[in-house]
Structures are given as C-alpha cells and as structure tokens.
Amino acid sequence: MSAAKAGKWRWVKWLFILPVLLFLVVQLYFFLQIWWWVDHNPSMTSFMREQQSALREKNPAANIQQVWVPYNRISTNLKRAIIASEDANFSEHEGVDWDALQKAYEKNNKKHKVVSGGSTITQQLAKNLFLSGSRSYVRKGQELIITYMLETLMDKERIFEIYLNVVEFGTGTFGAEAAARHYYGVSAANLGAAQAAKLAVMLPNPRFFDKHRDSGYLARRTGVILRRMGSAELP
C-alpha cells in the first residue's frame, strides 16, 4: 500500500473512531456526575439553567425559585400523588416501563401526534438533569442510557428525592418546597391531599397550569388522582 493510500486509510479510521471516543467521554461524564449525586445534592439542572437563561432575557436579575429539602420533609401526600399521576409502577420497574411506552406509542399513532410520553419518574429525572425538552430519537436514546445509570447507582428513594427537589412546577418554580410556597404559601411538609394531587396533575405542563389554575381539566384530573393516592406504593 502506498504512503498516500495509508494516510487516507488512517483518516477514514479516525472519522469512525473519534465519534465513538467522544460518545464514551460524554457517557463517562454523565456516569461520574450521577455517582457524585448519590450522596451530594444537585445545585442546578439542565432544565433550571435553560429556564433561568430565558427569564434573564427579560429581566437580567431574574432567578429560578428552588429550595432543597430532604425526603422526610416532603409530604407523603405529594409523594403518593406524583406516583399515582406520573408513574404507578415506579417502585417495581428498573427505570423504564416498557408497557407504558407501548401504550403511549399506540396512543400517539392513533392521534397522529405526540399526546403521551410514557416516561417514568427516572426517565423524567434523566432528562431534567442533563438534557432538554426537545423531542428526537437521539435525545430519547441518551435519556434511556442515563436512566439506567441512575437506576444502577441510586436506590429508588434517592432517585425520587432528587426528582421531588428538581422537577419543574411552573415558570421559574422548581422542586416541592418552592411549589408549595408558590401555590399555597405552606412548606412541602404541610401539603394537604388535595393540594398535592393538584400539583401532581400540573407536572406534564406546569407553565400552562401555572397560568390556568382554575382549568376544568385540572379539577377533574385532581379528583381522579385523589382517589388513586391510597394505592400508590412509595419506595
């Protein structure tokens, strides 16, 4: 093989090798970050940074509202309501509820648009911590990898604790404590059953419901979650 051909072949090999190496470096970063969060609390997530940046376009001094509280200082009502509303099988699955994903896929096909995600609490946390709200197969694939990292390194209670403290509840409002104070003027520990159920129902579209708190759908769905909360299994 001539020197020219050998040089060209090396470049072709690197065109394949470099993307693989970059992918592995990114995955290692995610893994190490999650490992650190096993016993350290995240300060900012990808979703928080994204929204704070958007808020500061209108007001340079704007900040998101978020206060970390330990798992045992968050109302059991809210924990049960979120599991009943978002992920009934949270304590049983290994990060992905494949049955729920299949049902969501069938529902979306029937409606010819995305109306249901089928994401578990762990998948939502993976997205909130590292990714964006955009929809693509590449992003979904990365979400699944991070989901299994979370489930491998953390127990269910820790996953749920982080989720409860970083999930978005409205424009600039993140986590159970900030949400409880924003909507009801109480701490996360003192949320009543109806209050918790309403917050849980807001999660799929929190910014919309922050502005439409008297929505008929919100009231009806809150009633449904209230009835389901008793059977919700906590980690």
Automatic annotation (TrEMBL):
Reaction(s) catalysed by this chain, per the record, are: [GlcNAc-(1->4)-Mur2Ac(oyl-L-Ala-gamma-D-Glu-L-Lys-D-Ala-D-Ala)](n)-di-trans,octa-cis-undecaprenyl diphosphate + beta-D-GlcNAc-(1->4)-Mur2Ac(oyl-L-Ala-gamma-D-Glu-L-Lys-D-Ala-D-Ala)-di-trans,octa-cis-undecaprenyl diphosphate = [GlcNAc-(1->4)-Mur2Ac(oyl-L-Ala-gamma-D-Glu-L-Lys-D-Ala-D-Ala)](n+1)-di-trans,octa-cis-undecaprenyl diphosphate + di-trans,octa-cis-undecaprenyl diphosphate + H(+)
Q: Which top-rank group of organisms is this from?
A: Bacteria
Q: Show the stretches that span the lipid bilayer.
A: 12-38
Q: What GO cellular component entries does it have?
A: peptidoglycan-based cell wall; plasma membrane
What are the subcellular locations of this protein? Cell inner membrane
Q: Keyword Transferase on this protein?
A: yes
Keyword vocabulary terms for this entry: Cell inner membrane, Cell membrane, Cell shape, Cell wall biogenesis/degradation, Glycosyltransferase, Membrane, Peptidoglycan synthesis, Transferase, Transmembrane, Transmembrane helix
Give a Pfam family name. Answer: Transgly
Q: Does the keyword Nucleus apply?
A: no
Query: Gene3D superfamilies given for it?
Result: Biosynthetic peptidoglycan transglycosylase-like
Any one GO BP annotation for this protein: cell wall organization
- Which residue intervals define the domain Glycosyl transferase family in the entry? 63-229
Question: Coiled-coil regions in this chain?
Answer: none
Q: What is its EC number?
A: 2.4.99.28
- Which pathway does the database say it acts in? Cell wall biogenesis; peptidoglycan biosynthesis
Q: What does this protein do?
A: Peptidoglycan polymerase that catalyzes glycan chain elongation from lipid-linked precursors.
Similarity comment = Belongs to the glycosyltransferase 51 family.
The name of this protein is Biosynthetic peptidoglycan transglycosylase
